[in-house]
Design goal:
Layout: E1 4-9, E2 12-17, H1 29-49, E3 52-55, H2 73-85, E4 89-92, E5 96-105, H3 112-120, E6 124-130, H4 134-146, E7 153-156, H5 160-165, E8 174-179, H6 186-195, E9 196-206, H7 209-215, H8 217-224, H9 234-251, E10 255-264, E11 269-277, H10 279-282, E12 290-294, E13 301-305, H11 325-334, E14 339-341, E15 349-351, H12 355-368, H13 381-386, H14 405-408, H15 436-445, H16 465-469, H17 484-492
Parallel strand pairs: 3-4, 5-6, 5-8, 6-7, 8-9
Antiparallel strand pairs: 1-2, 9-11, 10-11, 12-13, 14-15
Helix pairs in contact: 6-9, 7-9
Keywords: Metal-binding, Methyltransferase, RNA-binding, S-adenosyl-L-methionine, Transferase, tRNA processing, tRNA-binding, Zinc, Zinc-finger
Protein name: tRNA (guanine(26)-N(2))-dimethyltransferase
GO molecular function: tRNA (guanine(26)-N2)-dimethyltransferase activity; tRNA binding; zinc ion binding
Length: about 500
């Protein structure tokens, strides 16, 4: 007859078969303690936005003792006001909260962690404890009933990745996802960053510290996209490796991570991150990455950043007038270099001139068309480029061979569109087809850059938007057309 052992941890009492058919790691008790504390604080912050107050038995109400016999009227009014601002709905541990968090433990084994969530973390709507083993899923259901949390905890027997992929829709995503695998979590990260809600919490454990600490750099690269190295700071680097991997996988879906807390010990790593959506922030990801150069002799290291995001506006680099295409081609030919037009862009050139020669030509051009040096920042590329004298004197006299025969004869250099509106179409609608409004917009704005306005008198053919709104103050002197009849019709309607 099969016997069972009861293991107590926190507020949970878990049944374990003596045959050790389900994995249990007692060394990870601190990991589970920390996770309960982090999710509790996360629930406190998130549920406050939903109008729910988290209540913990260990947090007693603050008692204010007045030494005077009579209570100050102003203080009483202040306390009453503060009390009225508190959320009307409260959430306690072990109770189901309709506005609470939806939690998934993807690799639950015995369900100990999930049972502790249900017993110790307030403000939960549901806890899904999943495991691919049928015996583990059955044990989870028994432990939920044994601890009296069947109303909160539900057992699941599925592949963890497929379960998370099925919950990628915004309305189905989990608020908290906990992954504590036996080994590397790399195969689950892609599904996790997609199935966690906006601002949701990911709790990830990596127990393959040997790989992440430099014992196998090739294996580390194949799993996390980074090469680990043996160094005194290997545990700190291991944390950054998993954070880098999470950030890269989230960036594929225009999401980014916000690290909250991380723990690195001899044999495992535990990270807690929140996941948000934001294309602008995702673009800054490269500025957070770097290459590490480590000295095998003294252990010193140097970081080479992959990039740095700057906002310098849109201006081609030296802030001066641009030479014409023929002038620039002629200057290259005068300097003894070969040059030709590019098939990819009508204003681009191909040349065998080194970059140093090209910048020398531009320095010579700037002497003819000077820029205001006092307005250049000492840290700008233009300031540093113009601070160096050119090594030769460029000649901008137009040469005959600077303009090839194909350009003189206006031969077609680029492939023509086979038909109108032949480019990528708009995303398909649920009912299919493209709206007529979109087609009208395409016809209206087709080739708008080719017919640029060069004379201000042409603006009279365009209606004045401010006149339609009744805010134009220029009257007859306005450079745009005032259509009073159309405006009157709009007012009549």
């Amino acid at each position: 007859m099969e016997t069972e052992t009861v293991v107590k941890e926190g507020k949970a009492a878990i049944l374990f078969p003596s045959a050790n058919e389900v994995f249990y790691n007692p060394v990870q008790e601190f990991n589970r303690d920390l996770t309960c504390a982090v999710i509790t604080e996360f629930a406190r912050e998130l549920l406050a936005q939903r109008g729910v107050k988290v209540v913990l038995p260990s947090e007693q109400e603050r008692v204010v003792v007045s030494l005077s016999e009579e209570t100050n009227e102003a203080e009483a009014q202040t306390e009453e006001k503060n009390g009225s601002e508190e959320p009307a709905v409260t959430a306690a541990a072990g109770e189901r909260c309709e506005r609470g968090l939806r939690v998934l433990e993807g690799l639950a084994a015995s369900g100990l962690r999930s049972v502790r969530f249900a017993l110790e973390v307030p403000g939960l709507q549901s806890v899904t404890a999943n495991d691919f083993s049928a015996k583990a899923a059955a044990l989870i259901a028994r432990n939920a009933q044994y601890n009296g949390v069947s109303h909160l905890l539900h057992a699941s027997c599925r592949d963890a990745s497929m379960l998370m992929y099925d919950m990628r829709a915004k309305k189905d995503r989990y608020d908290v996802i906990d992954l504590d695998p036996y080994g590397s979590p790399a195969s689950f990260l892609d599904a996790a960053v997609q199935s966690v809600s906006e601002g949701g919490l990911l709790c990830i454990t990596c127990t393959d510290m040997a790989v992440m600490a430099g014992n196998s750099g090739e294996t580390c690269y194949s799993k996390y996209g980074s090469v680990s190295i043996k160094a005194k700071y290997c545990h700190e680097m291991a944390l950054r490796i998993i954070l880098h991997s999470l950030d890269q996988r989230a960036g594929v879906y225009q999401r980014y991570i916000q690290p909250l807390l991380s723990v690195s010990v001899d044999f495992y790593i535990r990270v807690f991150v929140r996941v948000f959506t934001g294309q602008a922030t995702v673009k800054n990801s490269a500025s957070k990455q770097a290459l590490v150069y480590n000295c095998v002799g003294c252990g010193a290291f140097h970081l080479q950043r992959m990039g740095r995001r700057t906002s310098n506006g849109k201006h081609s680099t030296m802030h001066c007038n641009t030479p014409s295409l023929l002038q620039f081609r002629s200057a290259l030919l005068h300097a003894g270099h070969r040059v030709s037009l590019s098939h990819a862009c009508k204003n681009a050139i191909k040349t065998d001139a080194p970059p140093a020669a090209i910048w020398d030509i531009m320095r010579c051009w700037e002497k003819i068309n000077p820029v205001k040096r006092e307005k250049l920042s000492p840290t700008s590329p233009a300031f540093k480029i113009l601070s160096t004298e050119p090594s030769f004197e460029a000649c901008f006299t137009v040469r005959e061979d600077a303009n090839p025969q194909s350009r003189k004869r206006h031969l077609t250099r680029f492939q023509e569109n086979p038909q109108a509106f032949w480019g990528p179409k708009a995303r398909a609608k649920a009912g299919g087809g493209i709206s007529a409004d979109l087609q009208d917009k395409r016809k209206k704005f087709q080739n708008k850059r080719k017919n640029q306005i060069t004379d201000s008198s042409q603006l009279k053919t365009f209606p004045c938007k401010k006149f339609k709104q009744g805010t134009c103050t220029h009257g007859d002197e306005c450079c745009y057309f005032h259509d009073s009849e159309q405006t009157n019709e709009q007012k009549t309607e």
